[in-house]
Specification:
single chain; about 375 residues; alpha/beta; 5-stranded mixed sheet
């Protein structure tokens, strides 16, 4: 038994990837759940429109509790309810307050940002209570009752339905699983089957090999995307308010990125087990740090930046923006651009790595090809 134990320890020492999973993965889970597992969004951004916009800003700045929770990021004295809705659709802030000089202020909340909306409703319920108490105190002191009342209205997701926010993100998650895991074992199978040497001597560039590898998976994943999206719309009544072309463009770029990551993983893996291990290590951060489960705004700054390096973060922005808010190209150009840059970078790295992977196989393949006619003649 002692010999078996020593043998296992030696194999673990040689298998650095498995050792990394045993050590790094628990630490990663601890950090993520310690700093990122937070559903309560403490910091909210506000845009104020209407002729009494300055009064709203003064109320927020004059109350320490409100000033700690709310940040006024824009004011528009000439704006109205339509302006407020457009501000939320463009994702310029979490809340838009309309103060048009009447006795009622209306706070519009972006329901596509589920956790921020829940925090905003809780906070504004407290503000409503505070304003009501001020009016009661004024009446008790015989002073004229002044001051507005506050109403809240949730846009884009009035009932704060979880499925409306989760389904667009789950579409990206499923595509990530398909693209990364399935593709990551593609070239590894070639290496294990011994056919990598045949690829090495074929008149193909590394980029052509990669495109040939990912094209079938791209088509199958596209079919899966259509099925998942349609089922999400039918089963969960998720709306689709934006341009279909924008959603397709974002999904295509995202698929190209995750498929490229899968190929990149396969070029640095010697076995199927290694490929699956690396794929899982790249999937875990995307599930937990992309904003799909835990809101990015609620994460600690030291962890949040990781989320902005993940492709699923940007596809979630696109899918939720298009499906729930009805956002257009002028609003979602940034995540589209980021995905396009990621696709170029990942594809370039995969080409370089594949070229290096094929290089050692070229002499062996040529030597085998030179010996083959001799054997055939015998």
């Amino acid at each position: 038994m002692r010999a078996v134990m020593l043998k296992e320890f030696q194999e673990l020492r040689r298998d650095r990837r498995t050792l990394a999973m045993l050590i790094v993965l628990p630490l990663l889970l601890l950090v993520i759940f310690g700093y990122a597992a937070n559903f309560n969004v403490e910091h909210l951004t506000v845009t104020v429109v209407g002729s009494s916009a300055q009064d709203v800003e003064d109320l927020i700045d004059g109350n320490e509790d409100l000033a700690d929770r709310l940040e006024v990021v824009g004011t528009d004295p000439d704006g109205d309810a339509g302006t407020a809705e457009q501000v939320l659709r463009d994702d310029e802030s979490d809340i838009a307050v309309v103060a048009d000089g009447s006795d009622t202020w209306t706070a519009y909340v972006d329901g596509s940002n589920l956790f921020a909306a829940q925090s905003a409703l809780t906070l504004f319920a407290q503000v409503q209570q505070m304003l009501a108490q001020q009016q009661v105190q004024a009446a008790a002191q015989g002073q004229p009752v002044q001051g507005p009342t506050l109403e809240t209205e949730v846009l884009f997701n009035p009932d704060l339905t979880t499925a409306w926010v989760m389904v667009p993100a789950i579409i990206g998650l499923i595509l990530t699983f398909i693209g990364t895991i399935i593709t990551s074992i593609g070239l590894v199978r070639e290496r294990e089957a011994g056919t990598l040497e045949q690829l090495a001597v074929m008149p193909l560039r590394a980029s052509g090999v990669i495109l040939g590898k990912i094209t079938p998976y791209f088509l199958l994943a596209s079919i899966d995307m259509v099925l998942i999206t349609v089922l999400g719309l039918l089963l969960f009544d998720v709306p689709f308010n934006g341009p279909v072309g924008l959603f397709i463009a974002g999904a295509a770029l995202f698929l190209f990125v995750v498929l490229g990551i899968g190929v990149l993983i396969s070029t640095v893996s010697q076995t199927t087990g290694q490929a699956i291990q690396l794929a899982m290590m790249t999937l875990l951060p995307q599930i937990l740090l992309s904003g799909m489960i835990f809101p990015l705004d609620a994460m600690a700054a030291g962890v949040r930046w990781i989320g902005y390096l993940l492709p699923l973060t940007y596809f979630t922005m696109i899918s939720q923006g298009v499906m729930v808010r009805g956002a257009g190209w002028d609003v979602l150009w940034l995540p589209l651009t980021v995905l396009a840059v990621m696709a170029v970078v990942v594809f370039g790295l995969a080409v370089v790595r594949l070229r290096r992977s094929l290089a050692p196989a070229v002499p062996r393949a040529r030597a085998h090809a030179e010996r083959e006619p001799v054997g055939a003649g015998r």
